[in-house]
Amino acid sequence: MNEVTQPLGPPVDPTPAPRPGAVTLAGRFGTLARLDHARDAGPLWYAVGRHDSIWTYISSQGPFADQAQFAGWLEERQAREDPYYYAVLDPEGRAAGLVALMEIRPAMRVIEIGSIVYGPALQRTPLATETQYLMARYAFEALGYRRYEWKCDSLNTPSRRAALRYGFIFEGIFRQHMITKGHSRDTAWFSMIDSEWPSRKRNFERWLAAENFDSAGRQKLSLAALNAQQT
Fold first, then answer.
1. What is the dihedral of CA 160, 125, 204, 162, to 10 degrees?
2. Mean pLDDT in residue range 167-182
């Protein structure tokens, strides 16, 4: 309550969060590193650039006419501070996908994980999930953000399913939120907040642990089931 008995939310430290930086985040299955056009353009073209279906729900770019157009887009992306792009590197150090921290609001300590572009070889792998764990841990623990967002086209069923699997909470649909590539887009909003991160972190780590996979590499425990218990 304030001095005139109106309800208020709990007090919050108003210190702004730092912006994302050129860190390297190493995991058991691969590494995240700041997008480097010179290093990543070739591998990313073969991993994601030439697969047109990957780009259907990416709101403002792709598919690309050729490798040169794709390389030019990557170079322009690397120069941006928001979105701030990272390459997903496989164990051999080859770029297999892209993710970005975006819609960065340091004063509110709010940030979004987006522009997630996984090549076919990366999709549905432990590294794909580990990427989400590493990014969330960086946002919450290293940078101190308090709200971590996920947004996607409401028609993008795989993205909506992934958000729930990773432990985000569905918040609703923004109708006619955007015009993307000449089409109306309703946007599905999801979030994870700092008070939820400790349980989500435990579930990520439990899922990623070596003992959660059999000799054929199949999971024993489902991350979706682990996180469903928390909602």
1. 0
2. 96
